[in-house]
Amino acid sequence: MSRELVNEICAAQPGAEWSDPWGGGHDCWKVGGKTFAVTGAVGTHVSVKTDSVETAAFLIETGAAERAPYLHASWVALPLDAAPDELAHRIRHSYRIVRAGLTRAAQAALPPL
């Protein structure tokens, strides 16, 4: 999977917004102002949020992901060459987790799922 395809999946999420908050070519995808996916400037992995530290640890232990640098332990870094359906699933799941954590007002301001 390429960086372009990751960006397509992220852009397809309702209310998703792209930014490069650190400069230098990062792809940071947010919903309601909160990050749900990040691809670094070098771009070999996409970092996504999981539902728990335990899920992240499981994905890391099984070799499906790596620890996402600079982020909470519930985040993992998936290689861009991972199976496209798994990567799409993890990106969409991260989006839903982050969206569900927004205030009711912020959720109501977003397009429906």
TrEMBL record:
It comes from the Bacteria. It holds the Pfam family YjbR. Keywords: DNA-binding. GO terms for molecular function: DNA binding. InterPro entries: YjbR-like_sf, YjbR/MT2646/Rv2570-like. This is MmcQ/YjbR family DNA-binding protein. It comes from Paracoccus limosus.
